[in-house]
């Protein structure tokens, strides 16, 4: 057991997945908006059920802890509020670990936080099984890096802890590129499946296939202007590989729309549309999808 304490704010599927693993190797506290059962069950990808006691609290009742790590595992749109609530109650300046999708809160919180800020980009697949636990649907990999390039050693330490805890993790020096690559994948898949309420694999069929191609064309043009290097196989191949690999998934944005929650449209499409505007690029598909999600979330909420 390592003494460095981890506070995890945001007990969604990813937050609980990380907490239930870390609890085996380090002291962990989990804080959310409401009280959750202190015994949480993890169902592994092999179908094994493990019930683990977790120190669960709410942000309102958070004691003045001094954790070594503050993991924010909220949705991107909740990250600033969660950060403020937690930091108002904590002692010291923990290492802040940002697990959000997109590329919006990462540079913003990097500017705000006085201590080191690490970014995580993960392909772990998990969903909640109610208040009692989480199902680890598919094993992935978590890349850890920092936007300033000053905290390589911290990234290595956290990657080693996550690996000891049973989650595959790797410290990288190009986290910004990796976050943009994940954002490109999310932008190509999530708004379309949320708009048409389909599983990822249905994007391979008509009439959706050409829509994916057009969205990826727009995303690729933006990435070229922003200076994000394409993945070795190219943007189209990367996106189709992920669609193939996640064919049975209901993407996170579809789950949000179906549950009447706000979507991560600003974190995912926001940086792309802003860059397109800066560079005078025409992006009719991305704009239409953003418009749909903006209107849709108003009526669906
Ligand atoms: O990350 C995802 C998500 O659901 O947000 C993808 C890759 C689209 C898989 O569903």
Strand residues, percent: 15-25%
Q: In percent, how helical is the residue content? A: 40-55%
Low-pLDDT stretches: 297-301
Helix count, DSSP H or I runs of 4 or more residues: 10
The class by helix and strand makeup works out as alpha/beta
Q: List the bound ligands.
A: ketopantoate
- How many DSSP-defined strands? 12
Q: N-to-C terminal Cα separation, in Å?
A: 43 Å
Mean pLDDT, all residues: 94
Radius of gyration: 19 Å
Reading side by side through the largest sheet, how are the strands ordered?
A: 5-2-1-6-7-8-11-12
Shape: globular
Order of helices and strands: EHEEEEEHEHEEEEHEHHHHHH
Main pleated-sheet profile: 8 strands, mixed
Structure description:
The protein has 301 residues and is α/β, with parallel strands linked by helices. It is built from ten helices and twelve strands. The protein has helices at residues 13-22, 79-89, 105-112, 152-164, 175-196, 208-226, 235-245, 252-258, 265-278, 284-300, and strands at residues 6-9, 28-32, 39-43, 49-53, 55-58, 69-72, 95-98, 117-122, 125-128, 133-138, 142-145, 169-171. The protein has an eight-stranded mixed β-sheet, sandwiched between helices. The chain has a four-stranded mixed β-sheet with strand order 4-3-10-9, covered by helices on one side. Helix 5 crosses helix 10. Mean pLDDT is 94; it is low at 297-301. The structure holds ketopantoate. Ketopantoate binds next to helix 5.
